[in-house]
Design goal:
The protein contains five helices and ten strands. The termini are far apart. The chain is of the alpha+beta class and about 260 residues long. The chain is extended and about 90 Å long. The protein has helices at about 45-60, 85-95, 175-180, 205-210, 235-240, and strands at about 10-15, 35-40, 75-80, 100-105, 105-110, 115, 185-190, 190-200, 215-230, 250-255. It has a three-stranded mixed beta sheet, covered by helices on one side. The longest helix has 16 residues, at about 45-60.
Length: about 260
């Protein structure tokens, strides 16, 4: 089935009882077993490359010494490339996957269900003064009893950021990461966006006789409306999934020829 031996570019395995938590944009999502595929500037990164890397990860899991020695929920797959993989992303979107730019240049690929973007940029800090704070923070926990109407935690300070050890193997998990990937943040990710609309109409000659040779009216709209899952609670899906909002614009024009 393969012309060459199966090779994984890089495999990162977290040591048992390791007491360090990776707190950068890439590292904090990693679990115990992490398969990484690197593509150089001239290498192809297509839909087949993605499935090949996923196949490597599945084979790696299947070759454990004992049954389920490598749990699926402790295995991640990451692909790295300097250039933006436009064709791959277009193909994934055509297949119904959701692409989320979690951090600049770092994208998560999800199915029809996904996690809402966290109002906290990293699981241990608030947005900086150069970032727009999410309106979700208006409903954050502030005092005892607030948990009756909100599941958004308070701002990350002090003991709130101490690592948890919920696993039998001693692996650590940041509290805000646990919240970010809990079921309370899972939403139906479908939405339909009407991107562009344009209309033009030439007035009948009898209406403009003696005034002009032709008069054309035109109207265009960009992002005029959308239908979205109720799980977004009225928010723009692009914003709720961590992307920049798409602007809405309208224009009207008249073209007169004398």
């Amino acid at each position: 089935m393969s012309k060459e031996p199966i090779r994984i570019d890089l495999l990162i395995i977290k040591e048992e009882n390791a007491d360090k938590v990776m707190k950068n944009e890439i590292g904090h999502i990693m679990r115990k077993y992490n398969v990484l595929e690197y593509k150089g500037p001239g290498d192809e990164l297509s839909i087949d490359t993605l499935y090949k890397t996923l196949g490597y990860a599945c084979l790696y899991k299947g070759y454990g010494k004992t049954i389920d020695e490598i749990p699926a929920d402790e295995l991640t797959v990451s692909l790295f490339r300097e250039a933006y993989p436009r064709e791959l992303f277009l193909e994934l979107e055509r297949k119904g996957y959701v692409l989320e730019e979690k951090y600049p240049g770092i994208y998560y690929v999800r199915g029809n269900k996904t996690f809402l973007n966290s109002p906290y940029p990293l699981p241990y800090q608030m947005p900086s003064e150069y970032q727009n704070a999410s309106t979700q923070l208006l409903k954050r926990w502030r005092e005892p009893g607030d948990e009756r109407y909100t599941n958004i935690p308070s701002i990350p300070v002090g003991d709130n950021c101490k690592a948890l050890k919920p696993f039998l193997n001693g692996n650590e998990l940041a509290p805000y990461t646990a919240w970010m990937y809990s079921d309370v943040r899972v939403v139906e990710a479908w939405f339909i966006r009407f991107n562009n609309f344009s209309f033009s109409y030439n007035l009948p000659e009898k209406w403009i006789a003696g005034f002009a040779r032709s008069v054309m009216l035109n109207f265009s709209a960009s992002n005029p409306w959308q239908i979205k899952s109720k799980d977004f609670k009225g928010r723009d899906p692009e914003v709720a999934l961590g992307k920049q909002p798409k602007p809405q614009s309208f224009s009207f024009g008249i073209n007169v020829t004398f």
